[in-house]
């Protein structure tokens, strides 16, 4: 009885191949919870795709996937002076550096990518830092430009990237390779025309692994079904049932990430109104769950438990049976599945 992610493997892998064709030199990214798959599984997929490099979030993640991926491992989190490298495969790790003074702290021969301070303003070297970068004792693999997702000011991301490439060249530094994040294929192609001697390599995770929504489906197992009458008390807090119906105990709780939500940036009047409506319902203990039964989104009967959730199915609707599976709509980057099950396209259609 598990929380499962079913993968239409043929379709999922076809999407990966199509994206590699769209972004020549693409660097797959596997970090955090591995986008729901786990980083080792994604490292194996990147190896199958023939990618020479895999980007990971941290040095610990690099060590964890080194056995599953034979190529270079690019650590995206900037290196901190004195940080231990225990367990990292010698010669295969490329460290990101975001501050000029950190370069001197790296051992001779270390492979590095220098991150630039783009309009993201998260971290990176400033244009004024470029002439004083001391990389003589290091293997400089290239520069990285991590760009914002949205541009409400209408600015051109290609113009920003071009400005950085010119600044790097003006500082006497090599522009052979520039790593990009959050730039579309057409914009990458525009950059290639502007700088034909520079290789632009896109680092992509979400779109590579989760870009084809129809290839993935999340399902939870029904563990128990209990009929209740209006007014019956239930659960840890002994709430009253609002009407006749059924309580469904299903797999998936806070340990899986169910019911946990990262803050979202809201655009427009309608999304704001929906947010206010959800907040108002939450004040009277009414919260929609991500679980669906026969196309109907169900309410949490109470906040999710650690490994299960209790849902309320109202009225005379026919309840599922123990062992049935409910579809649920969850954010893969915050969900830890009990298993990832591969299916062929024909198997999924039959299910």
From TrEMBL:
Could you tell me which residue ranges the Alanine racemase N-terminal domain spans? 16-167
Q: Which InterPro entries match?
A: Ala_racemase_N, PLP-binding_barrel
Q: Which SUPFAM superfamilies match?
A: PLP-binding barrel (SSF51419)
GO MF:
alanine racemase activity
Give, as one word, the top-level EC class: isomerase
Could you tell me the EC number(s) of this protein? 5.1.1.1
Q: Which UniProt keywords apply?
A: Isomerase
Q: Does the keyword Phosphoprotein apply?
A: no
Query: Tell me, what's a Pfam family for it?
Result: Ala_racemase_N
Coiled coil: which residue ranges? none
Has UniProt tagged this entry with the keyword Electron transport?
A: no
The protein, known as: Alanine racemase
Q: Which organism is it from?
A: Kitasatospora cinereorecta
């Amino acid at each position: 009885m598990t929380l499962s992610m079913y993968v239409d493997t043929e379709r999922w892998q076809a999407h990966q191949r199509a994206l590699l064709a769209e972004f020549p030199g693409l660097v797959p990214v596997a970090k955090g919870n591995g986008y729901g798959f786990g980083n080792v599984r994604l490292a194996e997929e990147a190896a199958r795709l023939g990618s020479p490099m895999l980007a990971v979030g941290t040095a610990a993640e690099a060590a964890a996937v080194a056995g599953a991926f034979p190529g270079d491992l690019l650590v995206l989190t900037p290196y901190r002076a004195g940080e231990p490298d225990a367990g990292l495969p010698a010669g295969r790790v490329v460290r990101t550096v975001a501050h000029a003074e950190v370069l001197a702290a790296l051992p001779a021969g270390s492979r590095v990518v220098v991150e630039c301070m783009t309009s993201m303003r998260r971290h990176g070297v400033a244009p004024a830092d470029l002439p004083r970068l001391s990389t003589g004792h290091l293997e400089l693999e290239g520069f990285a430009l991590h760009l914002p997702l949205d541009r409400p000011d209408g600015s051109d991301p290609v113009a920003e990237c071009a400005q950085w490439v010119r600044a790097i060249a003006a500082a006497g530094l090599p522009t052979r390779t520039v790593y990009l994040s959050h730039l579309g294929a057409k914009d990458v192609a525009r950059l290639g025309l502007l700088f034909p001697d520079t290789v632009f390599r896109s680092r992509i995770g979400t779109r590579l692994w989760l870009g084809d929504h129809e290839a993935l489906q999340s399902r939870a197992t029904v563990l128990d079904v209990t009929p209740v009458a209006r007014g019956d008390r239930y659960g840890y807090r002994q709430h009253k049932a609002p009407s006749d119906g059924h309580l469904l105990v299903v797999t998936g709780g806070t340990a899986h990430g169910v019911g946990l939500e990262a803050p979202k940036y809201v655009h427009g009047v309608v999304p704001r109104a929906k947010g206010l409506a959800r907040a108002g319902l939450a004040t009277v203990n009414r919260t929609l769950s991500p679980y669906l039964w026969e196309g109907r989104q169900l309410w949490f009967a109470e906040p999710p438990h650690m490994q299960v959730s209790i849902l309320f199915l109202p009225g005379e609707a026919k309840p599922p049976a123990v062992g049935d599976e409910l579809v649920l709509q969850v954010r893969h980057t915050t969900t830890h599945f009990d298993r990832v099950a591969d299916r062929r396209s024909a198997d999924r259609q039959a299910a």
